[in-house]
Write a structure and sequence with these properties.
16 helices; 5-stranded parallel sheet; 6% strand; globular
C-alpha cells in the first residue's frame, strides 16, 4: 500500500504532491552531478496544507514527507515516490526518520521556544543526504512570537529543508508566512469514498460504513471512530437527544450539564493513563526512587509537566465539546434540509425519525436561529468562556428557537 492511499478523495492534491516529489528527487540527483528529470519548479521549500476538519491535511503532509525520503528501487524505473514499503517511507510513517520532525502540541498553543529550536534544526544539513522535513501539524496554534520565529525559517530556507504547515484555513496563518508557502487546499471527501475506505481497510459492514461516513460529515477519523467504536456511537446518540430534550428549562440545563460532564470524563480518562506514564518517565529520567527525596532540578521539571498536562486536559475537553457541537449542527442542518424539501441522504440518516419530528415542530427560521446558537457556543468556547455557561446558553437558545 503506497503512502498516498490514505488520502481519501484528494486526487488533485495527490497528483500535485507526486509531481513535486519527482521534481525533488531530480533536484537531489542534479546536486550529485546526475542529470535532472522533471520540472524543478514544481518543488518548493514551504507548503501550507489547509482544509476542513478531518479532510487529511496532516495525512497529506506526512505522505509527502515519506515520498521525499522514499528509497524504492522502482524509482530508477520511473516509479512514483511514496511506495510505502521502503525503509524511507516506513520510518517516516512510524515517526522514527532522523530527517523528519513532526511538531505536535498537546496544549492550546505552540510556544516560541519550541519554534526557535526547530528553526535552528532546519539550518542543518539532512543526515541522509535527501531532505530535512519539518511538519507542523497545527500551525494555527502558533503564538505570535512563535509565528515570527517560524517566519525567519521560511524566509531564509536551507537548501535541503522543507517546511510542511497544516492549518484549517489560509486565514489562520500569518500573511507573511502564507505568502512564502505553496498552498494546497484539501476538499471534504465524498461520503461514498469514506465508506469504501472503511469497508476495505477496517472490515466494516457496508451499511454500517455508509451510516458512519454520512455521520462523520467528511471527517475521516470521526467516521472511523463511529464505525468501530461503540462508545463513540453512544456519545453521539446522547448528543443527538438534545434537540428532543429542550422543551423546558430543566431539560435545557440537564442536557448542558450532561454534555459538559461527558467532555470532562473523556479528558480525565485520557489523563489517567497518559499523565501517569509521563510522570513515571520523568522520575525515571531523574533517577528518583519511589518514596525518596526528589533530585535537584526535578521539582521545576514536574511543575512544567503538570502545566502541560493541565493545558492538554483543557484542550481535550474543548475538542470533545467541539465534536459534539459539530454533531448537533449537522442534526439541525438535516432538519433544515427536510423543512426545505431538499433531496438526498441526510448526514444523520439513522436519526431520520427524530429529524422529521423536530422539522415538523417549527419553521426554517427557527432552525437557522438554532444553528446560529450552536455556532455562537463554539465562538464562546474559543474565547475561553466557562464551558457550562456557554453550553447552557446554547441549550436555552435551542428551546427558544
Amino acid at each position: 500500500m503506497s503512502v498516498w492511499d490514505d488520502l481519501v478523495g484528494q486526487d488533485r492534491v495527490v497528483e500535485q504532491l507526486q509531481a513535486a516529489a519527482r521534481a525533488a528527487r531530480a533536484a537531489v540527483q542534479a546536486g550529485r552531478g546526475e542529470a535532472p528529470g522533471g520540472n524543478a519548479s514544481l518543488m518548493t521549500h514551504a507548503w501550507l496544507f489547509t482544509g476542513p476538519p478531518g479532510a487529511g491535511q496532516v495525512t497529506a503532509a506526512r505522505a509527502f514527507a515519506a515520498a521525499l525520503q522514499c528509497t524504492s528501487p522502482d524509482l530508477e524505473l520511473g516509479g512514483t515516490p511514496g511506495c510505502g514499503f521502503c525503509d524511507g517511507c516506513h520510518t517516516v510513517l512510524s515517526g522514527s526518520h532522523a530527517d523528519v520532525k513532526q511538531v505536535r502540541t498537546d496544549g492550546l498553543s505552540i510556544g516560541v521556544g519550541d519554534m526557535r529550536d526547530l528553526v535552528l534544526r532546519a539550518s542543518s544539513y539532512p543526515t541522509g543526504g535527501r531532505w530535512s522535513v519539518i511538519l507542523v501539524d497545527a500551525a494555527h496554534r502558533l503564538t505570535e512570537a512563535a509565528a515570527n520565529a517560524l517566519l525567519k525559517g521560511v524566509e531564509e530556507p536551507s537548501p535541503r529543508t522543507v517546511w510542511l504547515l497544516c492549518a484549517p484555513s489560509v486565514q489562520d496563518v500569518l500573511p507573511t508566512i502564507r505568502s512564502r508557502c505553496r498552498l494546497l487546499v484539501l476538499r471534504t471527501p465524498p461520503a461514498e469514498a469514506v465508506a469504501d475506505m472503511l469497508i476495505r481497510r477496517d472490515g466494516v459492514e457496508p451499511e454500517a460504513a455508509r451510516v458512519a461516513a454520512l455521520a462523520g460529515q467528511g471527517d475521516i477519523d470521526r467516521s472511523r471512530r463511529l464505525a468501530v467504536d461503540e462508545q463513540a456511537r453512544a456519545r453521539r446518540a446522547e448528543v443527538l437527544r438534545i434537540p428532543l430534550e429542550v422543551a423546558d428549562l430543566g431539560g435545557c440545563l440537564a442536557a448542558a450539564q450532561r454534555l459538559v460532564d461527558t467532555a470532562k470524563a473523556d479528558a480525565e480518562a485520557l489523563a489517567e493513563t497518559q499523565d501517569a506514564k509521563e510522570t513515571d518517565d520523568l522520575r525515571a529520567a531523574y533517577g528518583a526512587a519511589e518514596g525518596s527525596r526528589a533530585p535537584r532540578g526535578m521539582a521545576g521539571a514536574v511543575k512544567e509537566l503538570e502545566k502541560r498536562q493541565k493545558s492538554r486536559a483543557t484542550r481535550t475537553r474543548r475538542e470533545t465539546l467541539n465534536v459534539a457541537l459539530g454533531d448537533l449542527l449537522g442534526f439541525y442542518r438535516d432538519v433544515l434540509a427536510v423543512q426545505l424539501g431538499a433531496g438526498g441522504a441526510l448526514a444523520n440518516e439513522d436519526q431520520r425519525p427524530a429529524v422529521q419530528r423536530v422539522a415538523g415542530e417549527g419553521g426554517a427560521e427557527n432552525t437557522l436561529r438554532r444553528m446560529e446558537a450552536v455556532l455562537a457556543c463554539r465562538r464562546a468556547l474559543d474565547r475561553n468562556v466557562d464551558p457550562l455557561l456557554a453550553v447552557e446558553a446554547m441549550t436555552v437558545a435551542l428551546r427558544a428557537g
